[in-house]
Predict the structure.
Amino acid sequence: MQTRFDLTQADIPKTWYNLLTDFPEPLPPPLHPGTKQPIPPEALLAIFPENLVQQEMSPERWIEIPEPVRDIYALWRPTPLMRAVRFEKALQTPAHIYYKYEGVSPAGSHKVNTSVAQAYFNKQAGTKRLATETGAGQWGASLALACKLFGLECNVYMVKVSYQHKPYRRMLMHTWGATVHSSPSDQTEFGRKMLAEDPHCPGSLGIAISEAIEDTVKHPHTKYSLGSVLNHVCLHQTVIGQEAIKQMEIAGEEPDAIFGCCGGGSNFAGLAFPFMRKKIVEQKKYRFVGVEPSACPTLTKGELRYDFGDTAETTPLLMMYTLGHKFMPPSIHAGGLRYHGMSPMVSHALKLGLMEAEAYHQTKVFEAGTLFAQTEGIVPAPESAHAIAAVVDEAIKAREAGQKRVLLFNLSGHGLLDLSAYETYQTGKMSDV
Ligand SMILES: *Cc1c(COP(=O)(O)O)cnc(C)c1O
């Protein structure tokens, strides 16, 4: 039985897909925090290069992927689409379960799809140095690799709890030549202020973003880079869904429901948006489900309103589902899903009823991730295991209803650098916050 649906290097998409052009209602624009007026594109040039600012607001549906970016994509793309037959069997479900596996990238997740593009466009624009933040380290590692490949310096602010407890991604960043600071750090005024208030501050993504932005505006030839949330990041991730559409065609099936975990929303967007285009333009009946942790329930419990992307209130105001920019998420094991906000594009899709959202507790997530590892072999990243938990429930519903369903999810990364979280689960020390 065929369970793997491969493409060749020639099938790596030649364009990214911009869902902005197909939304039935336009996305509310980012606002200047002072004037509360739509922010002029020039105002973003202090932190982003012009070519990426253009992509952020582009009116074009298909945006060409430069050849040097496609060449690097070829190191791991096209990624496999697999049918999880052993997982189906363990769940005794009539549902067919497919997954798109982004964990085959050198950094182990989907994030290099955008880091490589961002490093390329920065290089073209004359940037010499990039500053960024990272939570558990997936984004920092992805940007470190991309910067090395394009000859840029990379300066990473890593949330302190992860810096201390997740040494392997810090080592990966060092291997790829980046400089890594534990955040809050003594490198920025905001970091020093946070440390003065509380020397034991565990840090948060919001604080690290503030530090990276301050670093950017205070250093010459430096730009800022974000690994999720923004429109151009979701855009770069659409290679995932475009490949998956072709691969599902080879498999000869149409998915009923499409799942992705949601931190800032980019891997979900990457798989979902090209299918969402078919839902809007061709009236396809796909269901889309964004899955988040119950401990950081942005889509299911947050408010849709304008909010800052960071703690220090330095970013433009974005219209998004948010738990408030001062929200300190409890330290759950899926570090990549601990963000107070959500991509404005994913938020807009939820508001327009194009998708749904669900939240899961971490013990349920690790139970699903463990079953997947024991049947399909791949140990999923704790973030990705959220999507798996939702797929398990859907597969059980299909069993109870005796319905053949076709489920597709994004396996956004592997969990080989998160095994300590699996051990916490196995030894019964994990609790639901
Ligand atoms: C960072 C990360 C996520 C969460 O980020 P999104 O922008 O929501 O995709 C999910 N899965 C993995 C493996 C990650 O590294």
